[in-house]
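Issue 218. Parser rejects a valid record. Input:
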Amino acid sequence: MDLLGPVVTKSGWVYSTGSLYLRENSLFGRPMYYPDDAGERMFLGRRYKKYQRLPKHSSLPAQPYPLCAQIDPWSVLIPAEQIVDRVDVRQALRNWFEGPDSRTSVIKHLLNTAGIKTDQCGLGGSTGLGCETAASDVDILVFGSASALSCRRAIEDALLSGELTLMTHDVVSSYAERYARLYGLDRSYLHAVFAGDLTKVYYQGRKISFIFVYGENERDKIPLQLYSESVSQTLEIRLRARVVDGSASWVYPRKYIVEQQHGQLHQVWSHHWLRDPVTPTNTLVEVVGRDLGGGIISMTDLAHHIVPLTS
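Output the parser choked on:
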């Protein structure tokens, strides 16, 4: 079972795998696509629409499975018997590498430079499902937390050489606008975050997204408490702390180690994409999340965050 690997359900909805853990033989799923006759994507002979993560008060299609607020406001618990197919993202990448897309060569070169074998990677998103459009980006899943740093360095080198480029000002602005509405964060702060996001790059005008995730053999690195049924009933905590280590904030699910003034350390976890942008070591931050005990904080709601303090 690969994190973020898509699964197809009896309802027709397509989800990505949100956790390496199961609960009572049910899978934590993050919505990707849902059947809709007016949809612009074709998958398995049906039309689909992309599920857009929006604030709770927005009009979203009702999901066919129970919501599980332990991860984020949109994820669900899918009974195993409801899963009719699992997309092999590693095979999908091997197949895509044999195709004509011009991005394959630069991605192969980056992975080789980083010392990452292609069988450590997968193809996610619409391209992995085979329902991409001409404008679709390609989502490269890199499994294993240890691979994140070497891959980032290879991307940096390609950016410095001019082989790759970062997002344009207009694209960055659209991301900042969207996430400012979603999370209620300052637009200019988010603009600065996205402007330096080297996991979203362009090759010859076509987008490549690198997504780093824990491998299945790293299950013990992720606290089981994050997926407890009681998470949504735990107390919310708000604290000031300094970042001790943010290296794992690049990997899904994201993690920071922070230290309060009196020396207490906390692990701060989040399953929200881009919810906790990379913050340098020693930065003073405000953390808002659920206190799971044992020094573990989980950011599950739209209002939860880890952001630098300005004063």
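Fixed in the parser; the record now loads. Helices lie at 89-97, 103-113, 125-129, 147-161, 169-183, 187-195.
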